[in-house]
Design brief:
By secondary structure, the chain is α/β, with parallel strands linked by helices. It is built from eight helices and 14 strands. The strands form four sheets. It has an eight-stranded mixed beta sheet with strand order 1-11-14-8-5-2-3-4, with helices on both faces. It has a two-stranded antiparallel sheet with strand order 6-7. It has a two-stranded antiparallel sheet with strand order 9-10.
Length: 308
């Protein structure tokens, strides 16, 4: 594996950088990446994207001035990183709590001098065309997003002396609200995400890309391979895969990957392995890169190619 901290930097003399499919995005911890750039209330979101992953995708697939959309923008990581790279940003989030923080984070970026256009809407991305203005149809250069990981989020963990371990901020919103894809079970999450992809694709300009980050999780003992399931959602939404990459959450050092894990994450893995479950500390996310299918590319042709 290439130990160069920036995988797009070439290793030779006077050569063009050669992009590689492993993105060295975990050289700094999430907290270090967010320090001074995101409001402290952002910590409460249970499943934020690592800022360097959004930044890498935006730098790679767009140019300054381009428009970047995240239809499930949470606290606005995609939007903030787009602004810091001189791109315009458009976001949508179902929960007003996270949309408000996204707005605050955009205000922070503006105060730091990154004053490109950026707007956050609040609504259900399954019916995105009812939320976003029509003026944006076909005008977006890149979509960067990630679906909720079911109810598997870690959140904040505190230990109360004599009172055990307490979890907070490990939910996306009210579990009674069926509009949030995190709360409706895997089948509905996948059909909902398919609708979100199809609705979002209407905003993409011809030739624009969609970048999705996702990771698998365990439901009790069973592995839910979300990245592979997302490829099926993409097919159903009329999208074709153009690349599949890995974004590191851990740091590359001395030919090894050092995970940025908490004591509780390590403890949980140790106990599960002792109980015979072959789990690992998560040190990467899958990154799936898609485009709209050309008109002549039928679903049958796509299915055949994926089966090969
Ligand atoms: C994995 S998180 C994305 C986090 C975001 N990338 C960030 O860094 O903050 C998924 C987000 O999708 C939102 N969401 C769930 N269902 C939604 C829906 N129907 N429409 C729009 N957003 C939704 C959740 O509230 C959550 O904030």
């Amino acid at each position: 594996m290439n130990p160069n901290p920036d995988p797009t930097h070439d290793q030779g003399q006077d050569c063009e950088p050669i992009p590689v499919s492993v993105w060295a995005t975990g050289q700094q911890s999430a907290a270090a990446q967010r320090a001074g750039r995101y409001h402290r209330d952002s910590t409460a979101h249970p499943a934020k994207m690592l800022p360097s992953i959004a930044a890498h995708a935006i730098a790679h697939y767009t140019r300054p001035g381009d428009l970047v959309l995240d239809p499930m923008c949470g606290i606005g990581t995609t939007l903030v990183e787009a602004l810091h790279l001189g791109r315009r940003a458009l976001g949508n989030e179902y929960e007003t709590r996270w949309a408000d923080i996204a707005h605050t984070n955009i205000t922070l970026a503006r105060a730091a001098g990154y004053d490109q256009e950026a707007t956050v809407f609040t609504g259900d991305a399954r019916t995105l065309t009812r939320v976003l203005p029509q003026a944006y149809l076909g005008a977006v250069d890149l979509i960067v997003t990630s679906p909720p990981y079911g109810d598997s989020t870690h959140g904040q963990v505190t230990v109360v002396p004599g009172g055990g371990v307490h979890k907070t901020d490990h939910r996306y919103g009210s579990t009674l609200d069926r509009g949030n894809l995190a709360n409706i079970g895997l089948g509905r999450l996948l059909s909902g995400f398919t609708r979100i992809l199809a609705a979002s694709a209407a905003y993409l300009r011809p030739g624009g890309h969609i970048v999705i980050t996702a990771r698998p999780w365990r439901q009790h003992t069973e592995l839910v391979d979300l990245p592979s399931l997302i490829l099926t959602c993409a097919d159903q939404a009329g999208l074709v895969p153009v690349e599949r990459c890995v974004a590191l959450l851990g740091r590359l050092a001395d030919g090894d990957i050092i995970a940025h894990s908490s004591f509780f994450q390590r403890d949980c893995i140790t106990k599960k392995r002792a109980a015979g479950l072959p789990v690992h500390l998560i040190a990467h996310e899958d990154v799936i890169i898609l485009k709209k299918a050309a008109a002549q590319e039928t679903s049958g042709i796509r299915s055949e190619r994926w089966a090969a």
